Amino acid sequence: MSAVPDGLVAALTGLAGRRPLLVASDYDGVLAPLADEPSAATASPGVAEALARVAAADGVTVALVSGRGVDDLRRVSRFDGPYRWVGSHGAEYGGPLAGELAGRRDALAETLAPLVAAVPGARLEVKPASVAVHVRQVTDPVAATALLADARAAVDPSLTIKPGKAVLEVAVTDADKGSAVRRLREDLGAAAALYLGDDVTDEDVFRTLGPADVGIKVGEGETAAGHRVTDPEAVLAVLRLLGDLLA
Ligand SMILES: O=P(O)(O)OC[C@H]1O[C@H](O[C@H]2O[C@H](CO)[C@@H](O)[C@H](O)[C@H]2O)[C@H](O)[C@@H](O)[C@@H]1O
């Protein structure tokens, strides 16, 4: 099977004629293969060039929409282009977050730190608007599942819980990627949008897409996206094809 299924080639061909066009993508598991350590998730070779080519087309805006904080996303991706940077699942939009959130986030980190410290391999990631409990490197699956359940039970139930791949995030804002992409579209007056994502939080975006848009789920699992590709390698093929169609 070709990396880009025929139905998706047709959809991208139609999309390439629309302006203004928003091309938005999640990062981890999409533009970068998943890695054991969050800081080791470097972008797939060729992706930076493919994204830059898409962004160079007239009337096209590329946006990076990540659960990571924007500073972290810039550092780990090493992308450097005329992109819109949306971080912290949409909470960081057009600039850093207000400082008062940091106190609530730090209190949350204090609550979760002892739980994480008690499970070998678990890791606590403190981000601008959330705290993530990672279990990718916990070798005992029972301990991993129990830690995620304990973390959920330990926090104020009014906080926003975001499950993901071997991770549970607790956020001090109720931002979501779907609202962020809707806002991007309004800012740009976009006639159509493309969105690529692989995880639970990306479904908030797929659910907002309309008939003129193209949603692409990367990998397995239930999705509201209209299209699917297998992995980040196939994402590179999609971006290269889109670059050709826009040229
Ligand atoms: O919205 P994304 O750009 O996909 O970011 C989602 C989370 O990605 C990172 O965690 C995930 O990727 C790690 C590196 O591959 C992996 O080790 C971890 O198991 C995954 O859950 C990041 O660390 C989180 O902050 C992001 O929210």
Commentary on this structure:
By secondary structure, the chain is α/β, with parallel strands linked by helices. Helix content is 36%, strand content 20%. The chain folds into 2 domains: 6-96 and 175-246, HAD superfamily/HAD-like (Rossmann fold); 100-171, 2-Layer Sandwich (Alpha-Beta Plaits). It contains 8 helices and 11 strands. The model has no long low-confidence stretch (mean pLDDT 97). The ligand O=P(O)(O)OC[C@H]1O[C@H](O[C@H]2O[C@H](CO)[C@@H](O)[C@H](O)[C@H]2O)[C@H](O)[C@@H](O)[C@@H]1O binds at residues 26-29, 34-36, 38, 41, 66-68, 125, 127, 132, 134, 136, 164-167, 169, 199. It catalyses: alpha,alpha-trehalose 6-phosphate + H2O = alpha,alpha-trehalose + phosphate. InterPro entries: HAD-like_sf, HAD_sf, OTSB-like, Trehalose_PPase. Removes the phosphate from trehalose 6-phosphate to produce free trehalose. GO terms for molecular function: trehalose-phosphatase activity.
Radius of gyration using CA atoms only: 18 Å
How many individual domains? 2
Principal-axis shape equals: globular
Q: Main beta sheet: strand number and arrangement?
A: 7 strands, mixed
- Cα distance, first to last residue? 26 Å
Strand content range? 15-25%
Secondary structure: number of strands: 11
Quick structural summary:
The chain has 247 residues and is of the alpha/beta class.
Keywords, separated by commas or semicolons:
4-stranded antiparallel β-sheet; alpha/beta; EC 3.1.3.12; magnesium; Rossmann fold; 7-stranded mixed β-sheet; 2 domains; trehalose-phosphatase activity; binds ligand L263DTV3; Alpha-Beta Plaits; single chain; 247 residues; Trehalose 6-phosphate phosphatase; OTSB-like
